[in-house]
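From the shared-data thread, chain only:
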Amino acid sequence: MGEMKPTIEWANGKVVMIDQRRLPLEEAYVECGTVEEVARAIETMVIRGAPAIGIAAAMGVALGVLNLKPSADLTIEYSKIAKRLERTRPTARNLFWALERMDRVFRMSRPLPLADLKKRLVEEALTIEREDERICRRIGANGAALVKDGDTVLTHCNAGGLATAGYGTAVGVIRAAWEGGKKISVLVDETRPFLQGARLTAWEMEKIGVPYRVVTDNMAGWLMQRGEVSLAVVGADRIVRNGDTANKIGTYTVAVLCRENAIPFYVAAPLSTFDFSLADGSGIPIEERPAAEVREVNGRLIVPPAAAVRNPAFDVTPVRYITAFITEEGIVRPPFDKTGTHHLFREK
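Structure, as tokens:
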């Protein structure tokens, strides 16, 4: 069993993150010294996963302000920093949640001397990072109760330590069940086209020591039909007021297959992923990523050179296919209250 190193950390005034594009064959790290480097790391998938993107955005804000000269117009420069990070990836709610939180600290601390303002922003970014791991552990503990001894858990994409500050959301549920002594196994969807399951979740299962098998995305239905899947647990990038959920492309397919085969389908996510400003999933912005991610594998063309492709990075699962949400506050079961107040959703 190997040691899990931090996905992202603040070190000597720089942001250091594991390069997830190079896993599982190479554990390399990217050091970001400017807000532009952080933004590019988010855009190019050096770092990914909604909570981890939020942490990166918070650290990017702190880094950007840290690098400002005393003569800079703080209000104008801060706006440029925030807008650059906002443009990186549109779907994950956690990115915007983190930027909103950093903006509140900036506005409250604006009257302070520049050195104190910079310190406050760095402290807030580090607080967001520390809180995330604690939240993930609570999600894991809450979700572990839904996993029985002997279960086989299907998961899609990567919602583990690599997608968070540590421990993970969906993988956190798996970890907590395993650490609690339950003899479980995991089926890891490869998750085309970026292969976050085959490359990243499988790597994490190796580190944690949980028995697993990688399967192609189109095997899931057949395995369910044969009775080889006990439950599915996935993460989320944005959950709106009625419970519709955006997650990695292919999640909707897994949810529909689970319904057809009477298998529980759970979404594990922190409350920072919930977006109560949107009534339903039709308003969620879906990122379209570069065609090369579909056209190539490890830089090698796998389609005819002139082939046109589509590459939406996410899909939206209607709430009717979701058995429950696993949050740090407990298990949330549909239907949702129309007020969009998460405290009303707690299972009593």
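Residues 344-348 have pLDDT under 50 and may be disordered.
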